[in-house]
Amino acid sequence: MSEYEPTDTLDVKGLSCPMPVVKTRGAVDDLSSGEILQVVATDSGSMSDLKGWADSTEGVSMLEQEESEAGGEPVFRHFIQKE
Amino acid sequence: MSSDADAPVETTTSVEELRAQVQALETEVSDLREAADDGQKSMTIIATKGTLDMAYPPLILASTAAAFGWDVVVFHTFWGLEILHEEKSKNLKLSAVGNPSMPMPNAVAALPFMDNVATSMMEKKIEANGTATIEELIETSLDMGVDLQACQMTIELMGYDETEFYDGVTTGVGAATALQHMAGADVQLMI
């Protein structure tokens, strides 16, 4: 499990590109400075896409990404902090 | 007076002039740097196709770029207008003919009902994969501030009415408007 305590969780399981990134943008906009968003996705492209988005977007940073399994399906968790 | 005595005076003046010139240039370079890097990237896409497969790339890129905070314009012209047409956008077709990825020969693909079969197959895959519909992507893009523009000339050419497009679509624009945005854009794509 992650060492980070998320303020909010965004569930984008079952959604594919571009929705995980697009919905993350909206959820991050609702956060206050310093708060952490956990994004839970099943799209394997989200590992690269959300990292790329966070790296080239002002005011957010990707703290951690982890891959786990739930019911035999891979689940990707992303911890994003609003700066 | 010898020429040696004049030399230092000329040198002093010239160094001062050079200093002033260097300072002016430094200011200019710093102004240009600031203007070139205003922090916001920009993208213009020209969307010209109205088949189901060609409607996705512009909308996916546009909504993602908006998530990056970019200033995005998608200029729709010719068959690209069908993407913005509220009714037609829900009924975009995939062409079975001339598509080597289709699991059927062209002679079969050319049968009258085959476009519908191919479209229906693709729609099922889209749903099963959790891929957003065209309608969802349009609504999302508009919500995120993407400027979806419908070319006025082709609206009239195709005999459409402006009220047939999604609310929030920009009409009354032409090539000059598209070019103006393209000229300042970091990314320009024709799809």
TrEMBL record, chain B:
Recite the UniProt keywords alphabetically.
Coiled coil
Mind telling me which InterPro entries this protein's record contains? DsrE2-like (IPR032836), DsrEFH-like (IPR027396)
* Any matching Pfam family: DrsE_2
Which domain of life does the UniProt lineage start with?
A: Archaea
Which named protein is this? Peroxiredoxin family protein
Q: Which residues form a coiled coil?
A: 15-42
